Backbone:
């Protein structure tokens, strides 16, 4: 059974940083590209960025390019999201899943809340 568990969120001031983690199990982790998504209040869930299965390549939506960085550890079945220069508009619940723009697994994790506010 696929399980995705996100952690590391919290309250941070504008300009601050956070590092999110995602622990995955129940599938052959190293075979899949993995992505971070987020859902802001009152909005649809959106893709934040993707890392290839090997971890050699990443891509991001324009709004986080140069501020957010995804990494993965295939030995630990985990991906990470380093978020720098956070803005109030980054406030959202953040999720991980396999896939790219379209997430592969329907059983999402609980997500982790990120709030950027002074």
Residues:
């Amino acid at each position: 059974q696929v399980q995705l568990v996100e952690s590391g969120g919290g309250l941070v001031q504008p300009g601050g940083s956070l590092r999110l983690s995602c622990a995955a199990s129940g599938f052959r982790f190293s075979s899949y590209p993995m992505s971070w998504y987020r859902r802001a209040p009152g909005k649809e869930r959106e893709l934040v960025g993707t890392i290839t299965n090997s971890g050699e390549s990443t891509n991001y939506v324009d709004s986080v390019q140069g501020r957010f960085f995804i990494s993965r550890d295939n030995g630990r079945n985990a991906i990470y999201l380093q978020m720098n220069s956070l803005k109030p508009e980054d406030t959202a619940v953040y999720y991980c899943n396999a896939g790219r723009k379209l997430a592969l697994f329907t059983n999402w994790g609980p997500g982790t809340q990120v709030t950027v506010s002074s």
